[in-house]
Design a protein that fits this description.
Elements: E1 6-9, E2 15-20, H1 29-36, E3 45-48, E4 51-54, E5 58-62, E6 66-68, E7 71-73, H2 83-92, E8 99-106, E9 113-116, E10 129-135, E11 138-144, E12 151-155, E13 159-163, H3 165-170, E14 171-175, E15 184-191
Antiparallel strand pairs: 1-2, 2-13, 3-4, 5-8, 6-7, 8-15, 9-14, 10-13, 10-15, 11-12, 11-14
Length: 194
């Protein structure tokens, strides 16, 4: 379905697609540092079990507001350093992609993202979620929403994951915290909003 991506069959009917960013979009050390240093100074707050908590990583929406966990991540304008990733996603994956959410993970601060399914509020029905991984390797873990088992995928520098709409509804995903994860990772997530 997605050219140049390997389709992993998760459970007999749901797919997860794994590929690579083109070489010309890989960041050198200076470019990575520049993108790293645009992370917000404060942590975004989300509603968990009826109370506001800070996310254990920095995150910021760009281009389109994103509403999840009963909170709005108000978008900033897309920066020039981010635009090539969106342009590539539009051309190579889905022409409707128009919003970016970036997560910055600092391993020395034990950053992670817990098990969840993405909010589909204001998203184009049927559109995929595209995750681009930059920097140090982490594990991208999938679990059935209702069921047992896990599927781990290495999120290395330049790895791209495509989560189809129906897979996001049937499977959760997370980036768990492990003792050996002490580096920096940037996750650029592309979505299609109405």
């Amino acid at each position: 379905m997605y050219k140049e991506f390997h389709a992993e069959l998760l459970d007999g009917k749901h797919f997860f697609h794994v590929g690579r960013l083109p070489d010309h979009l890989l960041l050198d050390e200076g470019q990575f540092d520049d993108l790293w240093h645009v992370h917000p100074q404060e942590f975004h707050e989300v509603m968990m079990h009826g109370k506001l908590v800070q996310t254990p990583r920095w995150q910021q929406a760009y281009g389109r507001d994103y509403f999840y966990t009963q909170r709005l991540n108000r978008a900033l304008p897309i920066l020039p350093a981010m635009q090539p990733f969106l342009d590539w996603g539009v051309k190579a994956i889905d022409a409707q992609l128009n919003g970016i959410l970036i997560n910055w993970y600092d391993g020395t601060l034990k950053h992670y993202i817990g098990r969840h399914r993405d909010s589909t509020a204001d998203m184009v029905y049927g559109s995929p979620v595209v995750t681009i991984s930059l920097g140090d390797e982490r594990i991208f873990r999938l679990r059935p929403w209702k069921g047992q088992g896990i599927r781990d995928f290495p999120a290395t520098n330049g790895t791209v994951f495509i989560m189809p709409w129906d897979t996001d509804q049937a499977w959760t995903h997370e980036v768990p915290r492990r003792a050996r994860d002490c580096g920096r990772r940037i996750s650029i997530t592309l979505r299609a909003f109405k």
